[in-house]
Amino acid sequence: MSVSSPLTSKFDPTRISADSVHGFGPETFVTLPPTVQHLARGLPVEFHCHGIGSADFSDLGRLSLSAVEEAAAREGIRCVPTLYLPFSRFEAFLAMMQRFSERRADGLHENIVGFAVEGPMLGSFGGTPEDGVWLPTRREWLQLAECGPLGLRYVVISPDALLPDSPLAAAKTLEHPELEWIVRTLLEHGVRPALGHFLKTSPEASAECVQRTVESAREAGARPFSGDVTTDHLFNDMPLRFVHAWRTRQDRERRQVELAAADLASWSIDTVLEQCGPVPGTIMREAHLGGLVACLNFDGEHVDIEVAKRAAELIGSRSVIAMTDRTDRPFLGSQALSRRADNSLYYQAKGIVAAGSRDIDAQIDNMRHCGISEADIWTMVMATPSRVLGLPQCDAPQTYLTCVGTDGKRYFRSGDEWATPCRETFGSTT
């Protein structure tokens, strides 16, 4: 293992007034690097990630909250660790959430801003470990919801997981509640339902379940553009009517032809249900209207970067969160992962994509290189997730400032100095 050295410097001071940093008091002056081309209040948010540094968030027995906090601080990010939850680890998860809440109350967590769970009610396993898919009872859902005040931010659910053709349908009994009860109970405790891992058998029925979720949230008091409902990856593990990614060398030989067939320029909010499919079309339309906030991967491999760019343009950046699905180690809980030579993704044993490896800075670079504006980039990586999570974008001027230099590097305020992200790197995991 090697650790890159963070670049920290005492720059020739450039003092700027409050007018240059919206939201600061009139007495505030900030020392900046001398060649700043963009300045933002806050830190980028890793809204959905499975591991940082040596930590595999799904390995609760070895998870060190202090180590994750330190790694996030070195990278200059705020993060929502996202984990899979086998039933056998349910009690350990509840205990971990209590421990996190106590540590947060003691002021030990500024960079970990909460946790998320991917599953367990999933209609499609996708890259999820199979033991992380199960159907909670009403009592177990309530136990999950009660983790909201402890710091559980969202739970990824398949809204169509209770349909008759779902693999979980046979397990449903009178002890298992309906979708609307689940949505209402989560929201009452401050936990957001995040929609993903859809069935592929009946796209229209699955899209109706998305609509039911949004309507249930509205009935529970969700406001437009509040982000009370979010998603897992837009376009991933859902039924589509077009090709959205070309991950291997062989796939990329077809990219130009299939990308042209998708006719991205003709997409509109009025036509995406027909062009993209009922599920992604409903998600995009509801996100555009403020009924939910869509998470979207900009690594260029989960979703082609041109597809991601067009979707973000249609939805609008205030309803899009850039997510990485990142891990730095070849494990997700009990599941060993592998890499391939022609992309940066992690795969599980059946050859299904399980996670990404590119961090938020790599995705920012991709967004910038494909022509997304600096304002929209920072809305999607910082302002929108901060709003959804209820985070102030600036707790203290000397701690939560981010700027981009003319050299293209991201700098973040760390105490009295500026630093560049320091990420742990590991050897080949192929």
Provide a brief overview of the structure.
The protein is of the alpha/beta class and 430 residues long. It has helices spanning 65-75, 90-105, 138-145, 179-188, 203-219, 249-252, 255-262, 272-276, 278-289, 305-315, 360-369, 374-389; strands spanning 2-3, 8-9, 14-16, 30-32, 36-41, 45-49, 51-52, 55-56, 78-83, 115-118, 152-157, 192-195, 230-233, 293-297, 320-323, 331-332, 335-336, 338-339, 346-347, 353-355, 401-405, 410-414, 417-419, 424-425.
Number of helices in the DSSP assignment: 12
Order the strands across the largest sheet as they lie in space.
6-9-10-11-12-13-14-15
Give me the CATH architecture of the largest domain, please: Alpha-Beta Barrel
- CATH top level label of the largest domain: Alpha Beta
Largest sheet: 8 strands, parallel
Mean pLDDT: 89
Query: What fold name stands as the CATH topology of the largest domain?
Result: TIM Barrel
Distance between termini?
15 Å
SSE class: alpha/beta
Estimate the helix proportion, in percent: 25-40%
Q: Please state the overall shape, judged from the principal axes of the Cα atoms.
A: globular
Name the CATH superfamily classification of the largest domain: Metal-dependent hydrolases
Stretches where pLDDT is under 50 for at least 5 consecutive residues are 1-29, 394-398
Strand content: 15-25%
